[in-house]
Structure formats: structure tokens, C-alpha cells
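Researcher: Structure prediction, please.
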Amino acid sequence: HPHWWRYKAEIETTSEIFFLFLGIYITVVGFLGIVGNSTVIYIFCSTASLRTPANVLVINLAVCDLIFSSVAGFPMTSLSCFWQKWLWGVTGCKWYAFLCAATGLASINCLTAISIDRYLVITHPFFMLDKSSFKRVLFNMIVIWGWAVIWAMPPLFGWGDYIMEGFGVSCTFDYLTRTWANISFNYSLISFAFVVPLFIIVLCYVGIVREVMRCGRPKEQQCYVKRFNRYNNRADNQNFRQEIQITRVLACCVVSFCVCWMPYAIVTQIAISGFQDLVNPYMAEIPVMLAKSSAIWNPIIYALSHPRYINAL
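Model: Predicted structure follows.
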């Protein structure tokens, strides 16, 4: 992109150690993402108590992160870092960016679906007894991946674009070109594929917190069980505590996703709003590297905090 030409001398004189560090970092992140998410998928699929309709969403999130790690990590990005240039051509750049975009967007869609599910489990448990079916989960999968592909595809057909970024070792959305088509796409993307899902997630967890506070401690468990027992005599305090703990775990997953992706979203909005001069190669590359680590945190969070996952381990 012409924007990066002004930094040509700076990029060419960048230390080889910097590119070596990027390559090692991406390799490690990719390896951890592949191993961690493969483990999550195996445990959730092989453990009978974890094979529930609700956990299909967790498995799907791990699949998103596994694909993202495989594409955004080794070998494409890491090898390009070691060679200090993009190795896979223009077509490779576009399909690499498309796969990263589709899986990244599917991840936030999946987190949104999980948040809605958690909200309903905590606030309307008896309602969920009749609704937790694999048919409903299949519908969720279609929406999650369909909405992701809808927003990842347009740059392949002229609304927006995929280009190399920063130091020229990875590719992403074109957030630099000041054309109506590109500006409208980027604003639409950030609004409908990031802000709206994030708003829904926040609403769900605010609702969960309000429900727990409304029941009040130490009576919160009795409140939940009393409502749950109207439809299921097996409900007990332990079940409630586990549901709350699982909700906290999944809330941590949401927070980690936002921490990893928010700097990148901010940089793209700074650029697309007309302040491209503020975006240098380092300012572009560092948020991208942080975003690529998003796929490694969920398995770590599960291993440290998810009660049923820990038992399965």
C-alpha cells in the first residue's frame, strides 16, 4: 500500500533481530494455539459429561481458534517473518486474510452465542431445559459461521480489500485507502461484526450480574434452585455453583478476546477516520501480533478455572 512506502527506508533498516523475534513469537503462539485448542476439542468430544448442546458452542470456539492458529501462526506468517517478506503472493495474501477474518469473526460470534446461552441458563434455567437441543445448536452454528463469512467475503469482491500491512509479513483488511467503498466497508464491519456482538455480550453479562445480585447472597443459590426445581428435582446448590463458575470462566474468555483484539480495532478506526499519519509500521504490527495470541488463552483459562474441564483432565 502507498501508505507504507513513506516508511520504506525505516522498514529496510529494521533489525533482523526484530523479525527473528516476530517469527519465534508467531511460531510459539501458533504451536500453543494448535495444541491447546486440539486438546480442548478432544476432551469436550471424548468426555460424556461434556458432550452437551451448550458445549458444542465451546467446541466450535476451539475449532475457530484452531483454524486461526493454523493460518495466522506457523507456517505462513512465521516463515514470512524469518524471510522478512511475504512469501505467498497476492492471492495467498487475500486468502490468508480471508481465513483469519472469517475465523476471528466467527470467534466473537461464538462468544456472543455463549453469552446468550449463559444468560438464559442463569436467569431462565427452566426455560433452557426445553430449549437445549442439538437442533438449536445447529441453527446457532449456521448463524455464527454465516455472519462471519458474510463480513469476510466482501473484500474478495471489491467492497473493501485485503492488503499487506506494516512490515509486509502478514495481511489484513485495507483500513488505509480513502475511497467511499473502503470507508463504508470498514465502518460497517466494525459496527455490525464487532461493536454489535460486543454490545450483546455486555448486555448478557450485565443481566447475569443483576440476576445474581437480585437473588442476593447467601440466598442466591436457594433462589436459583427454587426456580430450577419447579421443573427439575435434581437441581441443587452444587449445580448452581458450577453454572456460576462456568459463567465466570466464559466471561474471562470474552475479556481475553477483547484485550487481544481491541488495540487492533482502535488502530484500524484511527486510520479509516483519516488519521493514517499516526499509524506507522510498529503501531500497525504490534496490535496484530497481540491479536494473533487471542487463540491461546481460552485453553489456558479452561485448564485453570473450568470445573468440569478440570475434572475431565
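Model: The chain has one domain: 2-312.
Researcher: Thanks, that helps.
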